[in-house]
Design brief:
Chain A: This is Anti-sigma-D factor RsdA to sigma factor binding region. Chain A: It comes from Micromonospora pattaloongensis. Chain B: Keywords: DNA-binding, Sigma factor, Transcription, Transcription regulation. The structure holds 2 protein chains of 2 kinds. By secondary structure, chain A is an all-alpha fold. Chain A has a domain of about 60 residues. Helices cover about 65% and strands about 0% of the residues of chain A. Chain A is rod-shaped, with a radius of gyration of 48 Å. In chain B, helix 2 crosses helix 4. By secondary structure, chain B is mainly alpha-helical. Chain B contains 9 helices and no strands. Chain B has one domain: Winged helix-like DNA-binding domain superfamily/Winged helix DNA-binding domain (Arc Repressor Mutant, subunit A). Helix content of chain B is about 75%, strand content about 0%. The chains are: A mainly alpha, B mainly alpha. Chains A and B meet through helix 1, helix 4, helix 5 and helix 6 of A and helix 2, helix 3, helix 6, helix 7 and helix 9 of B.
Chain lengths: ~325, ~190
């Protein structure tokens, strides 16, 4: 037997590898029955035939082993090994632990707090993430919306200037015009003129033609209202008359909505036009006329950049009357 | 066996679905028990210790299930990676407690449990193979244990031991060749 001494150091050929793989697959399935191994006790060398006869399931694999893998010299040792492996595998399956251990395990798993911490966090963790993401989206959206309507007096104004530069310029212009009116109403004509220049500078950076038209109209009216050479001005706008009306207007709450609603869209259109058609009813309607258009009172109250705007029809109305 | 475990079952078991957990245990436990028995052998003549370790592994696997999906490995690799660690832990504990190597030394003790002749014979054969396995290089031994005792296909064994399926096939052939040599040697010894 010692002459069969093996050749495990020799290079392996593909057939041997394939045959060994098949053998191990079969052994792993538990195909070879251990009972077949019984006659081949250690010491008895007749393993091959008994093994093949007694293990119908494993026969083909043994055959493959013999055919492809091992040489004839080697078969005795190889068969013994197959028998040993089969017996080993079968013995590992002997006296399997009671199935009751599953229940024991499930109970242990069910009662212990640990699994709860590993399993449960999944949902809340995900939930927290989702809530966080939703909050972030809302915050960003809210910021965007708020910013879009933010005026120069709003805390969001710096952001608005970055996010909506066009609207920001327009709003700055409108704001300057409004302050110019207030200044003019208070008799501070120089300041008003300076503010109107400022508004013009802002206006130069606005590209939306509709906005430009409207703001230019505002600017022009404001300029016209200003006493350019001190003398003609009083004729158009007696500083004394609008002063009482204009100053309360700045402090008044109702006007604020107007400008913001008007800045983006048409509602302000009536404002410049109003002096002409609606002069008679002006005193009463002037404050109310601009109010209906503002659809966005909420955010715009903060901005309230043009409180002086409604003041515009007032003086003209007075004058006409 | 474990190769056939569907992801769906694993997912439901990870969510502590009792039926899925039970089904998963039914799939996994036999292989785990054989693995632990193969690695630890009979201690004190019985597989009680090995079976306890297997039970421990089952619990560890169930606890770790929520983590499984993130690892992207075959489920068997996940399970037997845990099992390998638990077995090593058990071996260390046994060494600490008794100062005796749990596997090889104890396996060579006579089986204390009396049984029918047939069982004694197959136990004897199994014990002989355990001794032979103990002489294999560690990786080869692990491959044979996973391929034969557990019954995993070569590619899944590769995922566990960190080799390609082809490399596993070469290594297992070398292991068998070596075992044949060793078996022949012991037969010679007996015959002599």
């Amino acid at each position: 037997m010692s002459r069969h001494k093996p050749h495990h150091d020799e290079p392996l050929d593909l057939a041997t590898i394939a045959a060994d793989d098949l053998l191990l697959d079969a052994l792993g399935r538990g195909a070879a029955r251990p009972e077949g191994a019984e006659p081949t006790r250690p010491g008895t060398t007749g393993g091959r035939t008994t093994d093949a006869a007694a293990t119908p399931a494993g026969t083909s694999d043994d055959d493959t082993t013999r055919r492809g893998g091992t040489t004839d010299d080697d078969t005795a040792g190889g068969d013994d090994l197959t028998v040993l492996l089969a017996a080993w595998r079968a013995e590992l399956d002997a006296d399997p632990p009671a199935a009751a251990r599953d229940a024991e395990l499930l109970r242990a798993l069910g009662t212990e707090p640990e699994p709860a911490t590993t399993a449960r966090p999944r949902a809340p963790w995900l939930g927290r993430r989702l809530i966080g993401a939703a909050a972030a989206v809302i915050a960003v959206a809210g910021l965007a919306i708020g910013t879009q309507h933010a005026g120069p007096t709003s805390p969001l104004w710096p952001i608005a200037k970055v996010m909506y530069p066009q609207q920001a310029e327009a709003r700055e212009a409108a704001y300057a015009i409004q302050r110019a009116r207030t200044a003019a109403a208070a008799g501070r004509n120089d300041e008003a003129r300076r503010l109107l220049e400022e508004a013009r500078a802002h206006l130069a950076r606005v590209t939306d033609p509709a906005l430009i038209d409207r703001l230019r109209a505002d600017l022009d009216t404001a300029l016209r209202d200003l006493p350019t050479v001190e003398s003609p001005a009083p004729a158009v706008e007696p500083t004394g008359a609008p002063a009482p009306v204009g100053t309360p207007a700045t402090g008044a709450v109702p006007p604020p909505p107007v400008p913001t609603g008007g800045i983006g869209t048409d509602p302000t259109r009536p404002a410049p036009r109003s002096p002409a058609p609606g002069p008679r009813v002006v005193p009463e309607t002037a404050p109310t006329l601009p109010i209906p258009p503002p659809p966005l009172p909420g955010p715009s109250t903060v901005a309230s950049p043009l409180p002086g705007l409604p003041g515009l029809p007032l003086p003209t109305g007075r004058l006409l009357r | 066996m474990t190769a056939a475990i569907e992801q769906d079952l694993v997912r439901r078991a990870a969510q502590r679905d009792p039926d899925a957990t039970a089904a998963l245990l039914t799939e996994v436990r036999p292989g785990l028990v054989r693995y632990c028995r193969a690695r630890l052998g009979r201690i004190g003549g019985a597989y009680t210790t090995a079976d306890d370790v297997a039970q421990d592994v089952c619990l560890a696997v169930l606890r770790a299930l929520p983590r499984y999906r993130e690892q992207g490995v075959p489920f068997s690799a996940f399970v037997f990676g845990i099992a390998a660690h638990k077995v090593v832990d058990a071996q260390r504990a046994a060494l600490r407690n008794s100062g005796v190597t749990p596997t090889d030394t104890l396996i060579e003790r006579p089986d204390a449990t009396p049984g029918p002749e047939q069982q004694a014979v197959s136990t004897d054969l199994a014990r002989r193979l355990s001794v032979l396995l103990g002489r294999l290089p560690e990786t080869q031994r692990e491959i044979i244990v996973l391929r034969v005792a557990v019954g995993l296909p070569a590619d899944e064994v590769g995922a566990i031991v960190g080799m390609s399926a082809a490399a596993v096939r070469v290594a297992q052939s070398r292991a068998l060749a070596r075992l044949r040599t060793l078996a022949g040697d012991t037969l010679d010894e007996v015959a002599a």
